[in-house]
Amino acid sequence: MSRLICLLILTGCLCCFSGQAQPTSPRPSASTRRLAKSLQQLIGSFHGQAGIYVRNLRTGQTVAINADTLFPTASTVKIPIQCGLFDKIHQGELSYEQPLTYRDSLHYDDGIVGSLKDGTTIPLSQVVMLMESVSDNTGSLWCQALAGGGKTINQWLDANGFRQTRVNSRTPGREAFQKQNGWGQTTPRELADLLVYIRDGKAVSPDASDEMYRNLGRQYWDHDGLSQLPPSVKAVTKNGAVNQARSEVVLVHAPHGEYVYCVMTKHQQDEKWGRDNEGTTLMRTVGALLWHHFEPNDSWTPPAGYEKWW
């Protein structure tokens, strides 16, 4: 009987450590409750559906509003694509600096990669950089194919405990999901957790995580929530946009403790493109609110006239 009890205890412990560990959030503090109320008020008047997840990585305090609801990834899907690609590199099936030859058959749109001449040689590392920094779509689809396709990337996600995040585009069997959510789908909580997973060196390997994190720290599209942070503060991020959805995940290396957050929208009534889009405005408002919540003594705000650059 004692052996049976020990076996049951051991089995329970092993179960606890299987899959992607979910951090236990402490009882919300008064300031966290105030933050949750403010964020809830922000999305309460939003013309569409919005989800927000925030976690203070120092204290473990979280705010989750529609954080486990599925949303279209838009270009934030390029984070899991990068993970799948680096898994292939880690396995020795690809080399990060190997030369690739661009062919016109790869063309998707007229971004940087899609504007290359047929036969142009470019290192894989530069295609990855363009995928993450300028969100190059042709380069991203190229990387997705090199990673083994959406099915292989989804298998990596599932094996690492990310069971809501999926690549839909060009993935057999996921046509219905693509029709509903586009290139990919995820939840605000899971996308934020994936960024932390990379930050903690757990994605593929510590050295692969390090390089992926560096790539995500070179963001060209910095006019959303990122624009509300002082330029001297390190932040790692990826954002995305399609007609009826906006998404942004950010890990901020704030002076008094790192925090991660994700804002996602869908079914937006406002489909116009520009900085005054309701989803884009929401991301800027959330970015500013969180910065001043976690750094209350910092009086920095974007300088007058900064918006003219966008």
Automatic annotation (TrEMBL):
UniProt keyword annotations, A-Z: Signal
InterPro entries: Beta-lactam/transpept-like, Beta-lactam_cat, Beta-lactam_class-A
MF annotations from Gene Ontology: beta-lactamase activity
Keyword Cytoplasm recorded: no
Signal peptide: 1-21
Official protein name in the record: Beta-lactamase class A
Keyword Signal: yes
Catalytic activity field: a beta-lactam + H2O = a substituted beta-amino acid
Domain Beta-lactamase class A catalytic: 51-265
Pfam families found in the cross-reference section: Beta-lactamase2
A biological process term (GO) from this entry: beta-lactam antibiotic catabolic process
Domain of life of the native organism: Bacteria
